[in-house]
Specification:
Elements lengths: L8 H8 L11 H6 L8 E5 L5 H8 L3 E6 L2 H14 L4 E4 L12 E7 L8 H11 E12 L20 H8 L3 E15 L3 E14 L4
């Protein structure tokens, strides 16, 4: 793995937020989908930020690895894990350079991980490669229709996700279990609050031949 990345704009965002920028509670879609996970699953969370989702999954008995480019976010994730009495494995890495290794996880959870087009397809392919056969990928991200709304997300349409884009990225090795572009109302700290338009996708990696 490459050396730790330098400070990022996300260090500034997390430091300036005072409290947890996206709150301390898990994403609602993840909570809805978590029943799909096997007991005691090994779960990878790229872009887990301050750890609200990783810590919640650890509370459910899963073995969690959270990866993020922000050292500030990961420090807050470890603090949240200590306060909740669970163990969280963290990796400080630039997702553009990072590689999780092949077939090491039962599930990957990607919640509001927005990547530029130059990185997104390759990172998404790495997430598929990180799954064991039969492993699950759970994703929620903002849709391009989010642009005029004020509930969060990048203000660059190229960094917002559609279902055709995700299907192209994840490729034929993933069996689609759930796919929707829909409206929701977010209540995730000051960073995500109010009506939103999102893209949701859940898939299972094909079993080995």
């Amino acid at each position: 793995m490459s050396s730790s990345p330098p400070p990022t704009i996300w260090d500034q965002h997390f430091s300036a937020a005072g409290g947890y920028k996206y709150g301390e509670q898990p994403n609602a879609f993840l909570v809805q989908q978590a029943a799909r996970l096997p007991r005691g699953a090994s779960v990878l969370l790229p872009g887990d930020g301050e750890g609200r989702n990783g810590v919640w999954l650890a509370e459910q008995g899963h073995r969690v690895t959270s990866v993020d480019g922000s050292a500030v976010g990961l420090a807050r994730a470890q603090d949240l894990a200590r306060r909740r009495g669970v163990t969280l494995s963290t990796q400080h890495a630039d997702l553009g350079d990072w590689s999780p290794g092949p077939a090491g996880f039962d599930a990957v959870v990607s919640i509001y991980l927005h990547l530029p087009p130059a990185l997104r397809p390759a990172v998404h392919r790495k997430l598929v490669q990180a799954l064991r056969p039969g492993g699950l990928l759970i994703l929620e991200a903002f849709h391009p229709d989010q642009l005029p709304l004020t509930s969060g997300g990048p203000k660059d349409a190229a960094m917002l996700y559609t279902l055709p884009m995700l299907r192209d990225d994840f490729g034929p090795d993933m069996q689609e279990l759930l796919a929707e572009e829909t409206g929701t109302v977010l209540d995730e700290g000051p960073g995500h609050h109010g009506p939103a338009r999102v893209t949701r996708w859940v898939g299972r990696k094909a079993a080995a031949a």
